[in-house]
Amino acid sequence: MARSKQQQKVTSYQISAITSRPDLPFDIHRARDIPSDESHLLDAHRHEFYTIALPNQGYSNHLVDFQPVKLQTGQVLCITPGQVHLPQSFAHSDGFMLAFTSDFLLPGVPIFVAGAPPLLQPSPEIFTRLLALAAEMELELLQKDKNYLTVLRHLLATMLTLLDRSVAAVDEPSLSRPAALLQQYRLLVEAHFLEWTSTQQYAQQLHVSRGHLNDIVKQHSGQTASALLAERRLLEAKRLLLYQEQQIKEIAYHLGFNELSYFNRFFRMHTGMTPQAFRVQARELYNHSPQ
């Protein structure tokens, strides 16, 4: 499908923009069957819902929050709400695309968290089961038999549980207390990074010392607690510089920096460039110009 050369604004899409039923917070379709009226999803955009891509042939290239991702058969791409996604190229690619909101999930179902790597590599056996589950969901949504929404929720819960097993199999045989603490820290960072800018605030909420939190986070992620927090603040800064029309000083204040000079130093220390230079580069990369 030909891509327009005209620069476009990075738009945030609710799930109602892609579902056949605007009141249904779930959708599944074949990757090859993107309707012509949804071709705008091939431009850079933000997801306000969860997305899972399951390719069963070919490969595709993407940018997810400025990181290049090559998705191949047997892998799973997981995109969380708020991420900037740009599909770049497809080579004989086919498979399933799922979209859903947290409202559609059954209670207690594990879900991939923001900040986790977007690409998963389940075992061939689990991937085969994931494809079978996706085919069942596609059929349920097509036929709409009695209680089909209940069936869809349970099938999705099974898929997410299998994905969670795949992550656990790579990370740890079972979720130990230290690993659980890291997961809780990541969730708190995602919820509070705009107002909590010190790791001490997170340590207090988790009822551990700042030093203990830092030790556990570094042991299980390879980064300090401060580095993970800075990484999340930096990601939000990059997103805002790309798709918002705000002045840089307004973005700095939004992210909790009282002085523009402090924000400039923070950004340059982590990226090697100024916020303005990054904005120019990112908009060229994402073919973006705010309206």
Q: How would you portray this structure in words?
A:
The chain has helices at 124-143, 148-171, 177-192, 199-206, 210-221, 225-243, 248-254, 260-271, 275-285, and strands at residues 11-13, 26-30, 45-47, 50-64, 67-72, 76-79, 84-100, 119-120. With 291 residues, the protein is α+β, with helices and mostly antiparallel strands. It has two domains: 18-171, Regulatory protein AraC (Jelly Rolls), CATH 2.60.120; 177-285, Homeodomain-like (Arc Repressor Mutant, subunit A, Orthogonal Bundle). Strands 1, 2, 3, 4, 5, 6, 7 and 8 form an eight-stranded mixed sheet that branches. The two termini are 25 Å apart. Residues 1-8 have low confidence and may be disordered.
Rg from Cα: 20 Å
CATH superfamily of the largest domain: Regulatory protein AraC
* Biggest pleated sheet: 8 strands, mixed
Q: What coarse outline follows from CA principal-axis ratios?
A: globular
β-sheet strand percentage: 15-25%
- The CATH C-level name of the largest domain is Mainly Beta
Which consecutive residue ranges, at least 5 long each, have pLDDT under 50?
1-8
Given helix and strand content, the structural type is alpha+beta
Q: In percent, how helical is the residue content?
A: 40-55%
Distance between the termini: 25 Å
Question: What do we call the CATH topology of the largest domain?
Answer: Jelly Rolls
In DSSP terms (H or I, runs of 4 or more residues), the helix count works out at 9
| Number of domain units | 2
Task: Tell me, rounded to a whole number, the average pLDDT.
Answer: 85
Q: Give the oligomeric state of the chains in this entry, treating copies of one chain as homo and distinct chains as hetero.
A: single chain
